[in-house]
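Researcher: I need the complex structure. Ligand is flavin mononucleotide. Inputs:
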Amino acid sequence: MNTRITRMLGIQHPIVQAGMSWASSSAALPAAVSNAGGLGVLAAGPMYLSQFQSTLTELRQATDRPYAVNIPLYRPEADLILDAMFEARVPVVIASQGGPKAHLPRFREIGAKWIQVVSTLEHAKKAEAAGVDALVVVGGEAGGHPPANEVSTLVTVRRVLQEVAIPVIAGGGVADGFGIAALLALGADAVQLGTRFLLTTEATVHANYKDAVLRADVADTALVGRRSLPIRGLRNAFAEAIFEAERRNAPRDEYEALFKKSTLRQAALEGDVAWGKVEAGQSAGLVQSIRPAAEVMQSLVDELAQAMARMQGMTA
Ligand SMILES: Cc1cc2nc3c(=O)[nH]c(=O)nc-3n(C[C@H](O)[C@H](O)[C@H](O)COP(=O)(O)O)c2cc1C
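Model: Output:
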């Protein structure tokens, strides 16, 4: 396919595997997606510098196709990771949770593309004004950090496209090629999928995590932590404890402590899917199997072609 994003990044399909802490923090998943013609994304979020450097080397040995590194800019070690990304001449940076301005000039120098993750029009406009090359725009259905205002992907993405001229990679709630077609029809230049790629053999999370997400239906996730930095995850014991604290209007300190005590690491690494943060999107309910990422890519491409043919048939 030929879109502004496939041309900009040199990829075959307008399909991006979303950066997911732990799940895509090793080489296997991004390498498989990039080798299948999509954009694989290594999530640097939970990694220390030395671990990041060795994993990046592994990824570069496993694929000669374009790939990206996702870096949450708020993390304490972000500058060190960015230095390593610069030195390694990473071709695509996908930055979240922080301003891009300070970092853009030197990544420009090495010809890297800088893509900023946003979930509101306000942040989309700011990122465009700062000079980023493209946006990832996610809406309310998304796993991880959807917009706190809970506006859906359909509306969030369309609103951003009304006001922003740079290319948009849209996501949140998409798990098959039909969803990809829908967001391309809306005006996006590529689509990013997280939860779908979480349920692959290559994703590096505990088996309990994959099983719990696989069992979930479309209404089994919730926005958890409305009074903090909310996440979308499974409605487990941790989520219920947070809802209970919200109902009784628990003091701020107590609420924050409860929210921070539970971590993604606890669920993803240790397999505690009751009390950990099991980040996943509503599209968990659209996925019925854990499969190799290359097979998932093939299905996405086939379904996208079916969806496009169906729509072309409507005009015949
Ligand atoms: C387990 C998990 C971990 C995530 N970690 C990150 C992360 O480290 N950085 C980031 O920018 N987004 C992260 N996200 C959000 C995804 O990049 C993506 O926006 C989201 O999964 C898209 O929605 P979907 O799950 O409905 O496809 C995470 C999502 C999940 C499900």
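Model: Summary of the prediction. The first strand starts at residue 15 and ends at 17.
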